[in-house]
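User:
Note these tokens:
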Amino acid sequence: MDRVTKSYLDEFRREQSLSESMSDSDVFEYFADYCIVSSVHEEEFDTADVHVGGTGDLGLDGLAVIVNGVLVSSIDEAEDLLSINGFLDVKFVLVQAKTSSSFSGEQIAAFFDGADEFFTETPTLPVGEQITSTRKIMSWLYSKSVKFKRQRPVLQLAFVTTGQWQEDQYLTAKIATRRQRLMETGLFQDVIFEPMGANELQSTYQRSKNNVTVEFSFANKVLLPDIDGVAEAYLGVLPAKEYMTLITDASGNIRKPLFYDNVRDFQGDNQVNLEIKKTLHDPVGQQRFAILNNGITLVTRSLRTTGNKFVVADYQIVNGCQTSHVLFDSKEQLSEDTYVPLKVISTDDEDIINAISTATNRQTEVTADDLYAMSAFQKRLEALYAAYPDKKKLHYERRSKQYASVAGVEKVRIIGKTLQVRAFAAMFLDDPHRAARYYSDLRAQVGSKIFNDSHKLDPYYVSAYAYYKLEFFFRNSAVPVYYKPARFHLLMALRYLVGGLDMPNLTANKATAYSNYIAEVLWSEDKSVEAFKRAIEVIDQALDGESLTRDVVKTQGFTDLVKTAAVAMANKANAR
């Protein structure tokens, strides 16, 4: 391994809080998984969730299923996305990583063999639990093939080494043959094979650390008059094809994180979106699109202009999620005469950004609860996270890739909105089975039971810190990784065991003291390990000899069993 790659590997080990005892070859597998998946999925994710190296891994090191732009780990999550969006847009990503400096034909063939075995209807090789679970997701997706949007799934295969790919004719021919065999299964719209050496891997890692920056040409615009708190603002029309550069990544996928401040996810083929699509599929309608559509609002924290050339970074599409997705779906039909109304606003004033998001989204039927992403609560929570020093500190990510380019930030200490919702619901609302799903089940509680303005902030911090600490222990083998499927149940059990049975109302001042008491335990290495080990005893009692699987933890019944066991253990401790 060359020096540069080794330095990147060491940095990755620190950022991911991976154990110093883990071998470089194992860290390299995680590193390769992170780089490859990051190139097609711009959200932060837990690398352990896509790493499959080990016994029964089919010769694969990384395996990711991306549905509608979301990295999923269960059928429940995929079902939720289908329910929300009304369609399935699927990409499978398989990774094989070798620390050798050469590309071996035998190893590449074994990689293809693993891919063949993963997708076959009648597997013959023994596989581990994670491969089995992911195969179930894959099978479920194909059972819903009538819901595939635009095309069948795309399969991306990445073979990673520390050497340099030399376009070897023999290997290229072998790869072409095996790729064609996969295409002939009829399962895929396309099969992409990427041989990645050290240079490509280093470049991919660097890109993962940068905020999205895009250059586009905006000729038909006017500069709006000076507005307090706004650096610049423009209003105009942009060719729809040019707009595609703003919302698609290098792989041609739509950038899901751009729409986080847009309140609602894409609603699929509802009546409004069907009307937009109908307009775009009609030549006359395309020509009139700029006057028929309400347009797009883009807010950027960094704008550089040179004539008609605009360069935006750290930006969000705060209004226009539905229009953007329909345009993306219809991109093959777009003509040179199709224009999109576009407003570009450059400001780093959070109050103004929130006001823009709220005002533009009020044009559709959204409730106050839907606007939680822009609420003052989120800013106060971010400030609380930042107030803790050193090892107690977490980083609340209100914006996508907010900390991507910030040096020295451990990835495991970054807590996004989705993870915050899940951790809080599991620990303080006794909803770990819902937290284990894609969090759409919990969205209905936002504004009332979650992110309620009258709630104390400390329970949110301590639930996130408990999640971080547990993940840290999993990575460093202080807690057996076997219990990872029950991580949200462990958070609930820990609250009962450490905080006690009398949890104050989340709006009461006592909720702060209650949370701080739990935090004191979590801040101590010895006490927190001991607390999670007691929580594991609770899980074992609830299982009563049954195996711990991802399916088990998603039921209300299992949550009830864990709660009963936790209460009993807490009462027993209090009686001593």
